[in-house]
Amino acid sequence: MLTRNCLSLLLWVLFDGGLLTPLQPQPPQTLATEPRENVIHLPGWRPHFQRVKRGWVWNQFFVLEEYMGSEPQYVGKLHSDLDKGEGTVKYTLSGDGAGTVFTIDETTGDIHAIRSLDREEKPFYTLRAQAVDIETRKPLEPESEFIIKVQDINDNEPKFLDGPYVASVPEMSPVGAYVLQVKATDADDPTYGSSARVVYSILQGQPYFSIDPKTGIIRTALPNMDREVKEQYQVLIQAKDMGGQLGGLAGTTVVNITLTDVNDNPPRFPKSIFHLKVPESSPIGSAIGRIRAVDPDFGQNAEIEYNIVPGDGGNLFDIITDEDTQEGVIKLKKPLDFETKKAYTFKVEASNLHLDHRFQSAGPFKDTATVKISVLDVDEPPVFSKPLYTMEVYEDTPVGTIIGAVTAQDLDVGSSAVRYFIDWKSDGDSYFTIDGTEGTIATNELLDRESTAQYNFSIIASKVSNPLLTSKVNILINVLDVNEFPPEISVPYETAVCENAKPGQIIQIVSAADRDLSPAGQQFSFRLSPEAAIKPNFTVRDFRNNTAGIETRRNGYSRRQQELYFLPVVIEDSSYPVQSSTNTMTIRVCRCDSDGTILSCNVEAIFLPVGLSTGALIAILLCVVILLAIVVLYVALRRQKKKDTLMTSKEDIRDNVIHYDDEGGGEEDTQAFDIGALRNPKVIEDNKIRRDIKPDSLCLPRQRQPVEDHTDIRDFINQRLQENDVDPTAPPYDSLATYAYEGNGSVAESLSSIDSVTTEADQDYDYLTDWGPRFKVLADMFGEEESYNSDKGT
């Protein structure tokens, strides 16, 4: 069986040169002599190029799927032309499934499948074979590629991948009307045998529907199926492979078919006469009753339209269709009056909106019914003579002035008196009052049209016999204006004129506004005030259409002479009494170009040089800033140079800072530092040139003011600090100045030797003995020294 299948699906490839060596053509019976052998010959190496005669070869094997044998399934054999049967050639296998699915005998080239295969999982395998020399391990020829195909068996049943199905078909469809097409899929090989050839049939759903066994198209099998009788059908479909033969596999699915509605039924009233009772007090537009016609159809086919047939009472009523319930709602178009007419009769027609012309031959799709309406008597509230009352009153009318009246009547049999009152909800501020019996309306406060121009409130009328029966009417009162406000200029109050303006040029159009309610046709007049009419710079031209123009009277204006002009304009209205006002307009002089376009109106622009643009001014300022920066940089460099010279001098001030811990060398030790800074301010100091800097030129000595007596230490230090701050010969770096002034406020005066006289002969220490025992030792020391000096002198 295997050999027969392989031979039936054998693929021959015709080629000229390639990896497989062409074989000599053989008669068919030669192949049949070895029915169990599938052999692929591998080409050997040829030493010379020669033309080889073409032959037929195969390059594929076949293996049966789902093989359940105990031994590996034999696939075929590989053979090389260089294999002489001496065992010197080794066959290798690589590619899809090599070693895991397929194995090869290295000596004989036999290929076996070592596990069961599924064609639906993988239909074929591509492998490569090669012959190798056993001793040298070198390939004897290039790799040859071949295919192993998995031969199909019927192991998969047909499946409806899209099931279950839902379909619909219109009711009353003819026999053979298309419903739906189903499709089953068989995973088996459709090119081999009948494993994938599917046949369809109906297991459930007959005799209503039928199916085409080959295409799976479902059609109607009965005529005039009525949705109103049965709407839903469930059909069971079977798909069987092997052409439906015995032993084939089958699959099923369900098709739910719905009959859709068509308009094949007219609407019908369940009864011919409808009786309704309506109170005469029913408001206009209210629903007074409902009637209904029945249509067994569904959806838009059941939509009904109701119409009143012209006749008795048809003009007092209307009928519409309720979209939700398809009922006819009768509404009142005009008010009913029991005393005038007590009953009405008319006909109503019901018809379908969407007609199907196929079924009109069955008869008219409409029905008619009679409606009888009885009017019921009701105790009604009073009725006003007008639905709305409009009144007018002038503002500032005195309180209590009657401005109008309302009238209401009781139309019922045995009419009752009527009482009037104002609805406080609509007139909370009580601007008006009403006479409860007569219905006259009067003012209750002074009215101001500018505050409120119109009043709207309600008046209620009730029956004396039944106060619960009330009616309401709206009152509209317009407050008329009294001319009490003068007109004013509308914005703007300020305008501009160019310096190069010509006489007679209109620079601004002005209009007027009046807070009073201006009547139709009211005119405003404009003129210049009398005080400004003498040699005016500007004038006012009245255009007689409630506007005026500001006109120039001079040939040019100068901002340098006058920047602002104030123009008084008088405006009058045409109402009675005439009201007028004087409005002052501000006119600013501006610089303009030749076309009259304003360039600048700033005050600062007046003082700018004539003809000097903004860019030029910026350039000048920038140059000034650059020059200042250069000067500052030059001065800084000079000071830095001078500082460097001072810091490198041998007589640096830091060399004169002396540190010592002895008690001092006396008045004669003056070489280490300038002792003059420590002298008592009473001693006149010699003017000396500073020794802590190297002078570039001869500097004049600075003059120091002597310190007055009884000056404290703080004033002394501040004076010395100020002298150093203003000293022109001071170094550019920080220096240390030390002062040792003890003050002169003591009765014993200063004890420091700094305040002593310069010569020892002038010293007198006798006063130390007068200071008490605390200074005895000091008096003895200086007394001995004085006696020693006197002896030495003698």
From TrEMBL:
It is found in: Cell membrane. The keyword Signal applies. Keywords: Calcium, Cell adhesion, Cell membrane, Cleavage on pair of basic residues, Glycoprotein, Membrane, Metal-binding, Phosphoprotein, Repeat, Signal, Transmembrane, Transmembrane helix. GO terms for cellular component: adherens junction; catenin complex. It comes from the Eukaryota. Residues 1-25 form the signal peptide. It is a single-pass type I membrane protein. GO terms for biological process: adherens junction organization; calcium-dependent cell-cell adhesion via plasma membrane cell adhesion molecules; cell migration; cell morphogenesis; cell-cell adhesion mediated by cadherin; cell-cell junction assembly; homophilic cell adhesion via plasma membrane adhesion molecules. InterPro entries: Cadherin, Cadherin-like_dom, Cadherin-like_sf, Cadherin_CS, Cadherin_Y-type_LIR, Catenin-bd_sf. Coiled coil: none annotated. The chain crosses the membrane at residues 606-637. Cadherins are calcium-dependent cell adhesion proteins. They preferentially interact with themselves in a homophilic manner in connecting cells; cadherins may thus contribute to the sorting of heterogeneous cell types. This is Cadherin-12. It comes from Equus asinus (Donkey).
